[in-house]
Design goal:
The protein is an all-beta fold and 151 residues long. The chain is 0% helix and 42% strand. The protein is globular and about 55 Å long.
Amino acid sequence: MMTAVDATAKGDIKKEQVKWTTYGWQGGFSSPVLDGERLYQVDNSANIAAFDVTNGKQLWLQNLGTSQKASPVLADGKLYLGTENGKFFILKPSATGCEILDQDQLGTEALPEAIVASVAVSNGRVYLVSDSNLYCIGKKTKGTTNQASAG
């Protein structure tokens, strides 16, 4: 079950503070993410679903693998998430479904690099941690070094 409550209320949550309830959805370890119109939640079987924030109606469901713990991260209109079977996805969600923009296998299918943490996004780059490596996804730029000069 998933329930939306009025977050402006104070004290105990009462029946009149419940905005909507959706039965039959069994969310997993991950936290949901909102884009203003839709709530995205992943269950433990790596199914990501979108729900209408006004009424809780499930809009679509997309399977991404077999096991999921990391929370999806929304940045630049895209969802970024990885699965425990080493698959990393970049998704373009909409009201009617999600387009898989990119899918990569970290490690191999026989020996996957498990992804159990959410990505971090900063300065146009996506940082992804697996159980074996740290990845940075983004355009390469010429960096400057902070070297002190004696003078």
